[in-house]
Amino acid sequence: MLSTISKIPGTPDHMVAKKIAIIGGGFSGALMAINLVRNGGPKAILIERKPVAGRGLAYSTSHEAHLLNVRASNMSAFPDQPDHFVAWLSSQGTPASDAFVPRALYGQYLSDLLAEAKQAAPERLEICHDEAIDIALASNKDPHEVTIQLKSGTRVNANTAILALGNLPPLTPEGLDPAELGHHYIADPWSADLTQRLGDDDDLLVIGTGLTMVDVVLLLDEYGFKGRITAISRRGLVPRVHGASTTDLPPLAERPKGEITAMLRMVRARSDLIGWRAAIDELRPFTQAIWQAASETQKLRFLRHLRPWWDVHRHRLAPVVAERIEALRGAGRLRVIAGRTQSFRLQQDHVEVSWLPRGSGETKHGTFARVINCTGPQSDPTRTHDQLVLSLVANGLAQADALGLGLAVDSQGHLLSKGDKKNTALLSLGPMTRGTFWEITAVPDIRKQVWDIARRLSNAHWVGGEGL
Ligand SMILES: Cc1cc2nc3c(=O)[nH]c(=O)nc-3n(C[C@H](O)[C@H](O)[C@H](O)COP(=O)(O)OP(=O)(O)OC[C@H]3O[C@@H](n4cnc5c(N)ncnc54)[C@H](O)[C@@H]3O)c2cc1C
After folding, report:
1. Per CATH, the architecture of 5-169+379-457 is what?
2. Model's pTM, two decimal places?
3. Alpha carbons 412 and 400: distance in angstroms, whole number
4. Could you give the C-alpha distances from 403 to 174, 210, 407, in angstroms and in order?
5. In this structure, which residue's CA is closest to atom 14 in ligand 1?
6. Distance from the Cα of residue 383 to its chain's centroid
7. With CB atoms 3.0 to 4.6 Å apart as the test, which of 19, 28, 97, 327 could cross-link to 73 if both were Cys?
8. Where are the extended beta strands (E) located within 49-113?
9. Which mean pLDDT values do the consecutive 10-residue runs of the chain (468 residues) have?
10. In whole angstroms, what is the distance from residue 267 CA to residue 286 CA?
11. What's the rounded Cα separation, in Å, for the pair 362 and 355?
12. What's the CA-to-centroid distance between 114 and ligand 1, angstroms?
């Protein structure tokens, strides 16, 4: 058993002077543990419910077809060492800088970094495979500030708890009853065997047309599935493709002024001069500041009208992936439609689905062997079944942000509990902080957030940092 955790009921919990519990060992949590070690920070325990820590949802895939959607040159784990990932690739005999390499390779990079941190400071980093289900603040008399309840019955005491939970699972589409559809419905494409009981030329319905749909379609193709796939979303927008590298463009000198919507008008105008990809990319260093300066009304307007457009232009496909998707569309094996699903009924061995095409008043019907939920992650803590998030919201330690995009945090990542009270012992990282930062989905943004917080917690933020 781990030295710093104890069973309940049992002997008093083992205390340490300063200790950080990181809940979630995906990219964000593992990187936090790595950064704490690199900065000579406090002891840390990394709690991950899956058997492997360090890869998370995005980088656990072993499929070669699943490529990074960011060039290797922009995927370093450390903002102060931009060439770190490219150097690691070279050390593995796969030099690549402008390339979109397999996500599995990136998972290996993260695993290596975590193992390296553990080896460098075994007494300062523990990895615990368990699920956190509740957190309580300690009373004034206790030397620690938080107690984390694990599913196994174990409790972990720490001075600070950092939530690195990733996204919450997607919502069930309206009108769909998973119990009625049984094996004909796949709620989580990441954890299911997509081809089980599937005929080679069946018809499939994928709900969602974003990056998750692309992953699933590539996987089915790789498994030899020859049937037809229909993908549906409200607007039917598919992620755009990356162009040639834009790294030679001079960066924007300063943050553009004005409202979010004015900003997007500016992107359109700049698109005419430098192309839409460059126009979107050059805004990136300022996106968080623009978001934070915007009023709630502006943010809501952006989410309602522009988010789908932003998402497909901002989070793009590697060219080889886009080519495969185009080829499948060209061959009639993938059809993308814009519309809103209405009902799902099990009829003998198939699901009859009805949907309303966008801009039309005439309901359409189709019959599918399987319906796969690729609506993508959601982060509204009030609409989840996640036990930890539910209990944090119920006991008032956490609350949803005003936009329902995640947990309410301040600009330093501290959780805002009920009544907007800042709690310095509880922090959150990554996609669940989207309401405050908006652009906090991909590696280049999360690595900076993690780096800043780790250095603050290690008291290294005001001196020059020392690497491992
Ligand atoms: C399919 C996919 C592809 C992507 N591709 C790219 C890309 O190419 N480039 C890029 O820059 N970005 C990419 N991203 C975005 C980005 O890198 C990820 O969203 C990022 O990895 C988020 O990491 P995370 O640790 O916050 O979340 P996750 O990776 O989801 O990790 C969260 C972890 O927390 C654990 N956990 C949750 N709750 C508990 C609990 N209560 N107790 C214990 N453990 C818990 C989970 O098991 C999980 O391992 C991709 C994202 C996805 C989903």
Report:
1. 3-Layer(bba) Sandwich (3.50)
2. 0.90
3. 17
4. 21, 21, 10
5. 442
6. 17
7. 97
8. none
9. 34 53 98 96 96 93 91 96 96 88 96 97 97 90 84 96 94 95 92 80 95 94 93 94 64 66 73 77 82 88 82 86 96 96 95 96 95 89 92 95 95 92 93 94 95 91 47
10. 13
11. 9
12. 15
Rg (CA), the chain: 23
Do 178-239+316-373 and 5-169+379-457 fall under one CATH topology? yes
Question: CA–CA separation, 252 vs 285, rounded Å?
Answer: 9
Residues in the chain, total: 468
Ligand 1 atom closest to 29 (CA): 25
Kind of pairing between the strands at 132-137 and 414-417: unpaired
pLDDT tens digits, residue range 343-365? 999 998 999 999 999 998 899 99
Per the listing, tokens 């061995």 go with 349
State in Å: Cα 58 to ligand 1 middle. 5
216 CA to centre of ligand 1 in angstroms? 17
**Percent of the chain at pLDDT above 90?**
65
- The structure tokens listed for 381 are 């803590």
Distance of CA 346 from the midpoint of ligand 1 (Å): 33
Q: How far is it, in rounded angstroms, from Cα 188 to Cα 208?
A: 13
Superfamily classification of domain 178-239+316-373? FAD/NAD(P)-binding domain (3.50.50.60)
CA distances from 458 to 10, 100, 231, 306, 375 (A): 32, 34, 47, 39, 38
Question: Per DSSP, what are the bridge partners of residue 335?
Answer: 230
Whole-number Å distance between alpha carbons of 314 and 166: 19
In the chain, domain spans: 5-169+379-457, 178-239+316-373, 260-314
For the CA atoms of 354, 356, 360, 364, the dihedral, rounded to the nearest 10 degrees, stands at: -10
| Secondary structure (3-state) at 47 | strand
Q: Which residues line ligand 1 (CB under 6 A)?
A: 23-29, 47-50, 56-58, 68-70, 131-132, 164-167, 215, 388, 430-431, 441-443, 446
Residue with tokens 């919507």: 261
